[in-house]
Amino acid sequence: MKFTTLAGACALALAALAPIVASAQNADDHPDWPGAGQLFVGTNYQPFDRSGHEQIEHDIQRMKDAGFKVVRMGDLAWDSFEPAEGKFDFRLFDWIMDRMHAAGLKVIMDIPGQPAPIWMHKKYPGVDVVDQHGARLDPAERYMDDTSDPDYRRLLVRLADTMTRRYAKHPALFAIGYNNESGNGMVSYSEADRQRFIGWLKRKYGTVAALNKAWATQRWSRRLDSWDEVRLPYIDGVGPYERYLDMRRFWSEQTIDVLKLLEAVRKKNVPDKPAISNLWDSAGRKGFDMLATYRDYVSYGAMGFYPGDPLGAGFESTMMRAGMNAPIWFNEFTAGGPGYYGTPGRSRMWAHFGLLMGAQAVLPWTWHSHHGGEEQALFGLIDHDDRASWKLDEFATIAKEFAKLEKLGFPRLQQPKVAIAYAFDNMIATNLPREGISNTVRPYINPGYMRQAHDAYAPLFRDNIDVAVIHIGHEDLSRYKLVIVPGLYLLDAASRTNLRKFVADGGTVIMTAQSDKVDDHNQWFDTPLPGGLTDVFGLRTNAFYNAGPLQTTIAGEEIKADLGAYEVLEPSTADVLARFSNVDGKAPAITVNRFGKGRAIYVATAAQPQIMKPLYHTLYASLGIAPGPVTPDGVYARVVDGRTLYVNTTSEPKDVAIDGAMDGVLSGKRWSGVLRLDPMGVDLLQK
After folding, report:
1. Which CATH number fits domain 635-686: 3.20.20.70, 1.10.3720.10, 3.40.1190.20, 2.60.40.1180?
2. What's in the keyword line of the UniProt record (predicted)?
3. The whole model's pTM is what?
4. Bridge partners for 420 per DSSP
5. How many C-beta atoms lie closer than 10 Å to residue 268's C-beta?
6. What is the maximum span of the chain, computed from C-alpha positions, in angstroms?
7. Strands 328-333 and 359-364: what pairing?
8. What Cα–Cα distance (Å) separates residue 131 from each residue in 136, 186, 403, 628?
9. Residues 430-462: pLDDT tens digits?
């Protein structure tokens, strides 16, 4: 029987499973797994690319000799397990699992749900992606699968069920991963997709009248008279903001539904093994709302870690950890880059940087260099001629150092007192497609959320302070002393409610310009701004002006910087903390309002380090937030069980002032007064 609705697909897939508790096995529920004092270095392995048993045996021995502990494999190989529908072949994988166990290596087994096999696309055309112009696309690259298709989901659940039952008791099995890089891929425009979208809208809005209101269809003669008139908005524009946002929400939920189906299989067959999946919630083509839903399918935050700069790398890894009291897994990890062959020492530096951020594992992508396919000429730890490259030696060094550090308080579990608000909805609202937003408003919401988030994060990051990046509508904010809302143009109702309670109960919030301007439907509020929170912040701010460099003073520190547009703050109960000295009327730059037991601070400009840094510094003492070790630019540090780990992320030597004489656990040197870090150098100091 074929189902053409999402509800039918889910019913079919779940009917094959025993009733299961909906919530995921989170790390908090199993504090002994993998447990304090365990760090993991391993690799990603594609055994189906190798020439035979002898080469695989040689690979495994080299992994063991390098001190690796865990291997991630199975991903991207659906048709190697199921070469034809319903005909499974596990002979090679059985043998490899046995050899991994014999070598003392553990396996993260990825359910290879994407890409789907060619045989599936041939037999079940609903799995094909249809572009916005109605053209059916061949699966020419990875992730060109319509994962909302019922046949796809049915066959994926069967694959996952078959694999997890087969290896549930295998001693090498360590964890389960779902659909490599979930969140990447393409949205689809088939008639079946349109009908599924309509079904989603019916559940969300109930009536066409409610949909018309949510989508502001009275504008420019877009009123809908029936559900059948609904179309999927174009992914690259043009289209009204409201329906574009709902379309992206719909596709987000399709990704999440697939992850939930796979999580149900894991909980049925291997409940003692965690879900550690290589997710990509911020993928540009699609993405999904992980921070609002991760508890339904995540045990540990995991990601592909390919850093460009320390600030972005720190923010992204922090976002992947979300609100979990758990370490981060780098299921894919930079193997040298940038460039084709990499830079010696770079992976080691980033591995220790990961430890600062709370990482527990680094698994370089990839074990062997690729001869062909989409990543042809990608250089791994083993060169194209099957010789070990210098990279293998570097990761062997990382493994030895991690073996030392896991006895000295690593992985470090963070308990941040500061949170930065992030939301998938907001990312869509502030990154609309071409012509998706009027030219009058575009300069105002520019530079968009992510740059503001990075700029709000930067002073805290440079002060070596731990931060959480969370969806503030789906977390217990009482865990934090300070919540920062940087340019959240769309602040949903749940987040507004949580913020109100947080401040009333004694918390401190900082909101910057461009925040809370549109409602849950991406329409501007018809009330004073910030929407629904004017009493919390004790002001109204409905006007903004573009200006050149702005001047203000915060706690005696003079600031002159090009901060872009500023909002005109009209305080009611709020007090003015700082004013712009070079604009008419010396307009307020920062205000603070007492609300309940807490404080609500509003910044009239976009979040930028020049204004956020001195503001934070005025708050640290009153909030009990202690900056970390003092370090020069480009050097980051954290204290772990009385020892301090320093990482130099620059290509220059750096001198770090230290208190007295200390021993370098990694360098084996004795330092007095000054720690000298080589370019990309690291050390752990102890008295």
Report:
1. 2.60.40.1180
2. Glycosidase, Hydrolase, Metal-binding, Signal, Zinc
3. 0.93
4. 469, 484
5. 18
6. 79
7. parallel
8. 6, 9, 50, 50
9. 876 544 455 555 545 545 789 999 999 999 999
